[in-house]
Amino acid sequence: MAQGVANVWWAMFGFFTLVLVVVSAIWIYAMWRTPRQVSDEDAIRINRRWVIGGGIVLPTVSIVLLLLFGIPTGRSMLPLPVEGEQPLRVEVTGHQWWWEVRYPDDGGIVTANQLIIPAGRLIDVHVTSADVIHSFWVPRLGGKIDMVPGRTHVMRYQADQPGVFRGQCSEFCGTQHANMVLHVEALEEADFERWLAARRNFSPAAPTGEAGTVFEARCALCHSVAGVSDGNRAPDLTDLASRPYLGAGVIANDHEGLRRWLQDHKSLKSGNAMPLHDDIPGETLDGIADWLETLAP
Ligand code: CUA
């Protein structure tokens, strides 16, 4: 898909460079040559020729040529019916400032800030928003699409090769718009199936002791973890430990990063909706962090 967009871009670039060169050449010639005396009727006739040629024929031909390039590329991104293997459906919802990702056909798997897809297969991404307008954009996979509250837009993608691609919200959506990064990973089809199965069968143990009490009283109100809690206002944490970043790209998801995020997320990402739980004793926070680190299917 990105290849198609790139082709249209290069075609436009090449074509309009040609237009620029031709128009500049005519313009320079017009300035350089000695004016010739013509009658009023001749002047009108010559002007009319230039208006029709340069003002109507040339733009019409240019636009038609570009449409011939553009329309098929645009069509290839539409979720039109296909024969054979059906596209994988994923649902991505924009939030201030994170991404909710669902796989409705695969046991309702939910994750956040990461989109795992099979390489070499069509993916229909259904996007919407829970609050303001965001925009789904993974530059190396091609087209960008707005995420509008109350509407669902669909765009079709395909990653030809396995790899990691960076997605970024591309519609200004508030102070942390820049910190709305989506980690996209395309896996070999077999690895993707393994990932799906592992996610489906993953049932983490609930946290115990003081950490468990605090998790249940606070974190669980907003966050869900499969089989443990079902909050629905914040990112699902079921596979948190398998994600490369915290806070939608703000900080690396390692032992250090997780503790820093829990203690200091307001300075890492000011304005984020998570309350600052700075009254929780350090060792309880450590207990919660230790448990969160086990959340890897
Ligand atoms: Cu979401 Cu910008």
Description of the structure:
The radius of gyration is 27 Å and the shape is elongated. The chain has helices at 2-32, 40-76, 189-201, 209-222, 255-268, 282-292; strands at 88-95, 98-103, 109-112, 114-118, 123-129, 134-136, 145-147, 153-157, 163-168, 181-187, 224-225, 229-230, 245-246, 251-252. 27% of the residues are buried. The chain is built from six helices and 14 strands. With 297 residues, the protein is an alpha+beta fold. β6 (134-136) and β7 (145-147) form a beta hairpin. The longest helix has 37 residues, at 40-76. Strands 3-2-1-5-8 form a five-stranded mixed sheet. The protein has a three-stranded mixed sheet with strand order 4-10-9. α1 (2-32) packs antiparallel against α2, α4 (209-222) packs across α6 (282-292) and α5 (255-268) crosses α6 (282-292).
Keywords:
alpha+beta; transport; binds dinuclear copper ion; 297 residues; 14 strands
Draw up the topology in text.
Blueprint: H1 2-32, H2 40-76, E1 88-95, E2 98-103, E3 109-112, E4 114-118, E5 123-129, E6 134-136, E7 145-147, E8 153-157, E9 163-168, E10 181-187, H3 189-201, H4 209-222, E11 224-225, E12 229-230, E13 245-246, E14 251-252, H5 255-268, H6 282-292
Parallel strand pairs: 1-5, 4-10
Antiparallel strand pairs: 1-2, 2-3, 5-8, 6-7, 9-10, 11-12, 13-14
The structure holds dinuclear copper ion (CUA).
Residues 94, 97, 134, 169, 171-173, 177, 180 line the site of dinuclear copper ion.
Question: What is the number of strand segments?
Answer: 14
Proportion of beta-strand residues? 15-25%
What is the CA-based Rg, rounded? 27 Å
Mean pLDDT: 91
Helix content: 40-55%
Q: Main beta sheet, described?
A: 5 strands, mixed
- First CA to last CA: what distance? 31 Å
Q: What letter string, H or E per element, gives the SSE order? A: HHEEEEEEEEEEHHEEEEHH
Structural class call reads: alpha+beta
Q: What spatial order of strands do you see in the largest sheet?
A: 3-2-1-5-8
